[in-house]
């Protein structure tokens, strides 16, 4: 009984390690920069969705405002770099820490809200954040800020000629987000979160401090998302409020997890692998401005999933297990 | 030795409705006490006050020699109050063993220890064979058992059972009764709310009857069932005169 559990955990690690190695080899064969770009974005959104999944999937607090933390990460890194010359590696950690603190400060009032009200509050707060940045002259206001290009450097994390460093960083990000989730899954927090999601009253009666669990989940989730935002800022080297804090980022973090399987270990990555290339391809091949079309595509996808496999695509893999019950 | 649990002059008002008025009861260590009474007598309210779901309007609650009146539910659990819910509240998307691990984490910080404790409790409650099944796939009797298992995993000093034997077939109820006895034999004090008199009366050491929010009668089960006041509360005046 105990043995099968330990074995399953070990197998998950093994699968993850093999996938990482396989993914790391891909760019050696695929040199097309456009395809590499899609792979980078896929890994990044996989990592973001995995982080979103901690608060919204495991702990059940649906956030549609995670763009706020993504933007905070992007802006902190960029501002520290352009205004004070602080290396982005440090800016990344600073952005993560700021986001985690803000997530807890916002959680303090918002976690008293139940269900849909919480989700609505997150949308509103992210929009307020967007408006504040849009009107903040020092931070570039609506025009945004450009990263000064100072030549290829690991310290400054800038590479003009090759996408490979970005690819490997995105891969590392996905690995970290996955591993943190894997590790938390079999910890007190993991059990507390799932208990809070399923039934807060029962959780409380079993000694679970519901408020603390939500705060913990929010902090971890926001920290990791901000790291992703920092990376994105370095990667595109130009940010403006709409392009890092817009509502579409909140959606793009939620959708892969919902598609792949919300509250599951593999769901967000699986969802991202399907959704992000699809989004990028529809954007570039169908219709120039594109935005409408890619939204239609994954809107349809979500409807189909909701009807056919409400637990997400990952459910296809566990069907056998269900039958044996 | 002081009582394990004591309520002192507890009142609970919901707007104009008085659910508990001046309720003072005590439960000694190692006892099985039954809390009975007709519908709307205030049993569930009193239960929730003891478990810490809400603080009483007035009065105080003492557990293990300490005033716990203002402690939230989670903290009371840490001090040794375990409970089940009348309407089962399993963690439906989690397996049976994971449900129990949540409870076991109260006293075990190392995951491996918590898991071992959870297996132990499943063995004790006869759910071991169902460990890896999702809670949503359990039949109602098993779900009630899971409620008990989860609460036991928190290693309580006092176990509050809210109608765990209600709605079961006679055989299931008998296994339930055996389980409650087994629990008491491990040294856990039990306070149970129950409707089914013929099952609960042989099981409990003492019965407390609530009616209209007040303690009506308290005593040995045999005396309680013959008490005219109890018969009146359950069946009305005519029968009380006949008795």
From TrEMBL, chain A:
GO terms for cellular component: plasma membrane. The chain crosses the membrane at residues 12-30, 92-111, 166-184, 215-239, 251-276, 296-317. It is a multi-pass membrane protein. It is found in: Cell membrane. It comes from the Bacteria. One of its GO terms (molecular function) is branched-chain amino acid transmembrane transporter activity. Its main location: membrane. Keywords: Cell membrane, Membrane, Transmembrane, Transmembrane helix. Pfam families: BPD_transp_2 (PF02653). PANTHER family: HIGH-AFFINITY BRANCHED-CHAIN AMINO ACID TRANSPORT PROTEIN BRAE, HIGH-AFFINITY BRANCHED-CHAIN AMINO ACID TRANSPORT SYSTEM PERMEASE. This is Amino acid ABC transporter permease. It comes from Bradyrhizobium betae.
Automatic annotation (TrEMBL), chain B:
CDD domains: ABC_Mj1267_LivG_branched. It comes from the Bacteria. Involved in beta-(1-->2)glucan export. Transmembrane domains (TMD) form a pore in the inner membrane and the ATP-binding domain (NBD) is responsible for energy generation. Keywords: ATP-binding, Nucleotide-binding, Transport. It comes from Bradyrhizobium betae. Residues 5-237 form the ABC transporter domain. One of its GO terms (cellular component) is plasma membrane. One of its GO terms (molecular function) is L-valine transmembrane transporter activity. InterPro entries: AAA+_ATPase, ABC_AA/LPS_Transport, ABC_transporter-like_ATP-bd, BCA_ABC_TP_C, P-loop_NTPase. Gene3D superfamilies: P-loop containing nucleotide triphosphate hydrolases (3.40.50.300). This is ABC transporter ATP-binding protein. Pfam families: ABC_tran, BCA_ABC_TP_C. GO terms for biological process: D-alanine transmembrane transport; L-alanine transport; L-isoleucine import across plasma membrane; L-valine import across plasma membrane. The keyword Nucleotide-binding applies.
């Amino acid at each position: 009984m105990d043995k099968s559990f330990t074995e399953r955990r070990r197998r998950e690690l093994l699968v993850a390690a093999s996938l990482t190695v396989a993914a790391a080899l891909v760019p050696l064969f695929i040199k097309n920069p456009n395809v590499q770009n899609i792979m980078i974005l896929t890994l990044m959104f996989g990592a973001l969705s995995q982080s979103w999944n901690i608060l919204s999937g495991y702990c059940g607090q649906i956030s549609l405002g995670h763009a706020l933390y993504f933007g905070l990460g992007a802006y902190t890194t960029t501002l520290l770099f352009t205004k004070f010359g602080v290396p982005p590696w440090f800016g990344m950690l600073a952005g993560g820490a700021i986001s985690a603190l803000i997530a807890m400060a916002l959680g303090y009032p918002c976690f008293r809200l139940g269900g849909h009200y919480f989700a609505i509050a997150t949308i509103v707060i992210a929009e307020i954040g967007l408006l504040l940045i849009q009107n903040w002259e020092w931070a570039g206001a609506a025009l945004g800020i450009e990263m000064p290009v100072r030549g290829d450097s690991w310290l400054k994390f800038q590479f003009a000629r090759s996408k490979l460093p970005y690819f490997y960083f995105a891969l590392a990000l996905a690995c970290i987000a996955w591993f943190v989730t894997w590790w938390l899954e079999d910890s007190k927090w993991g059990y507390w979160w799932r208990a809070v999601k399923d039934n807060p009253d029962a959780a409380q009666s079993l000694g679970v401090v519901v408020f603390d669990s939500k705060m913990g989940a929010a902090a971890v989730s926001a920290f990791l998302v901000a790291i992703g935002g920092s990376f994105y800022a370095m990667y595109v080297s130009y940010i403006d409020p709409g392009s890092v804090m817009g509502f579409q980022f909140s959606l793009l973090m939620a959708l892969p997890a919902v598609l792949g399987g919300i509250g599951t270990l593999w769901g967000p990555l699986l969802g991202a692998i399907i959704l992000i290339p699809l989004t990028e391809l529809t954007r570039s091949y169908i219709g120039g401005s594109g935005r409408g079309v890619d939204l239609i595509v994954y809107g349809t996808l979500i409807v189909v999933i909701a009807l056919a496999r409400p637990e997400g695509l990952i459910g296809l893999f566990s069907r056998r297990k269900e039958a044996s019950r | 030795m002081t009582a394990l649990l004591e309520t002192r002059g507890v009142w609970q008002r919901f707007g104009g409705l008085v659910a508990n008025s001046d309720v003072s009861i005590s439960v000694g260590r190692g006892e099985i006490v039954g809390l009975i009474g007709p519908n709307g007598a205030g049993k569930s309210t009193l239960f929730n006050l003891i478990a810490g779901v809400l603080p009483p309007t007035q009065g105080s609650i003492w557990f293990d020699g300490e005033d716990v009146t203002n402690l939230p539910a989670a903290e009371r659990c840490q001090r040794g109050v375990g409970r089940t819910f009348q309407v089962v509240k399993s963690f439906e998307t989690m397996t049976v063993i994971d449900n129990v691990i949540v409870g076991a984490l109260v006293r075990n910080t190392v995951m491996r220890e918590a898991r071992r404790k959870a297996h132990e409790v499943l063995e004790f409650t006869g759910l071991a064979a169902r460990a890896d099944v999702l809670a949503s796939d359990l039949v109602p009797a098993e779900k009630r058992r899971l409620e008990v298992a989860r609460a036991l995993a928190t290693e309580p000093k006092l176990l509050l059972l809210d109608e765990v034997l209600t709605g079961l077939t006679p055989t299931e109820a008998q296994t339930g009764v055996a389980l409650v006895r087994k629990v008491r034999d491990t040294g856990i004090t039990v306070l149970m709310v129950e409707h089914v008199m013929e099952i609960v009366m042989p099981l409990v050491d003492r019965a407390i009857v609530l009616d209209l929010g007040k303690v009506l009668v308290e005593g040995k089960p045999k005396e309680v069932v013959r008490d005219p006041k109890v018969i009146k509360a359950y069946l009305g005046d005519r029968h009380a005169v006949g008795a």
